[in-house]
Amino acid sequence: MKTVRHYALGSVAVTGLALSGCGYLGFGDSITIGAKSFTEQYILSEMTYFILEDAGYQVRQVENLGSNVLRSALENGQVDITWEYTGTAIATYLNMEPITDPEEAYATLQEVDVENGLHWMNISEVNNTYALIMNRTQAEDLGIESLSDLADYVNENPGEISMGTDAAFANRADGLPGLEEAYGFEFGSGNIEYMDAGLLYEALYNEELEVAMGYETDARIDDYDQVILEDDEVFFAPYNAAVHMRLDVFEENPEIEELLRPLAETLDSEIMRGLNYQVDIERQSVALVAHEFLVEEGFIEGDN
Q1: Who has the most CB within 10 Å: 48, 52, 100, 189?
Q2: pLDDT, position 4
Q3: In the structure, how many helices (H) and strands (E) does the chain have?
Q4: Spatial separation of the C-alpha atoms in residues 163 and 208, rounded to whole Å
């Protein structure tokens, strides 16, 4: 198996690269991949590494970056390519109103971000958006499959359902307040439990809650046998993962779009959740999970 080199850098280290001028490998056959500091990003970075290395590129990785640091590194030329989420770019980087249609969001970014010297391509069906989740058995017992079903149940049984959320989701217009308004129901302040997002899945599993905020590609949903309630009114903005690349690097290396296209066309939220599961729950290495997936799908050849 190929050797993978990781460069874990925080915001101070990235700033240092800009000052020293030694962190950027340039155009042509050298590509620097950036990634944020969670499992899904590590996997996407690793798969991109293997595909580009297999095509003959010299590749390095810069990981463990915060969202804003990664964006700055991309704009400043310290990173050439990354997997970014459409919703993050629209709401956080460009301060635009949420766009609920995935293709419209993607097309908007392609049009707007080119002014920042950035190119969007290879959108996938990996959608790491907000979701409301329930334990499967209880959802089936109550006949709740969608957010409309949940709204109807809450309206017909006030005070019966407790909802777990972090403070951010509870106060964001594109979080709980907007969701309740869009679906025409209200949990009630006495039925909302506040906790760190990372604790919600276990609290739900332990039946301390009936409903919890979650993220669509989180592996714990499968680990705890929980279900995502269908957003049938399409309230949540899409957070589709797509390849985000410096425009000048893309123009020097347009073949990268075709190299990564099969991967982007194959990945979806369910597959990504399964890959995250292998790393987060089964404790397999990121490199092994990424490499085996690419070999199984025929995107690269296995080692002899």
Answers
A1: 48
A2: 42
A3: 15, 11
A4: 9
User: Tokens 């075709």 appear where?
Assistant: 258
How buried is residue 230: exposed, middle or buried, by Cβ count under 10 Å (0-12/13-18/19+)? middle
What pLDDT, in 10s, does the model give residues 37-59? Answer: 999 999 999 999 999 999 999 99
Residue 165, SS3? Answer: strand
Looking at residue 186, its amino acid is: E
Are 135 and 214 within one domain?
Answer: yes
Range of the domain at 284: 6-127+241-296
Residues 13-27: pLDDT tens digits?
Answer: 343 333 233 333 333
Number of separate domains in the chain: 2
Helix (H) or strand (E) holding 119: strand 118-121
Give a yes or no: residue 202 inside a domain.
yes
Alpha-carbon distance of 213 to 234, in angstroms, equals: 16
pLDDT greater than 70 at residue 88: yes
Structure tokens at 126: 């990996």
Q: Compute the distance between CA of residue 241 and CA of residue 83 in angstroms, rounded to an integer.
A: 6
Instruction: Report DSSP state, residue 6.
Output: E
- Tell me the whole-structure pTM to 2 decimals: 0.86
Rounded CA separation 12/184 (Å) = 46
Beta bridge partners of 62: 7, 34
Q: Which range has the worst mean pLDDT, 12-26, 85-99, 227-241?
A: 12-26
Q: Report the CATH number that the domain containing residue 26 is assigned in CATH.
A: 3.40.190.10
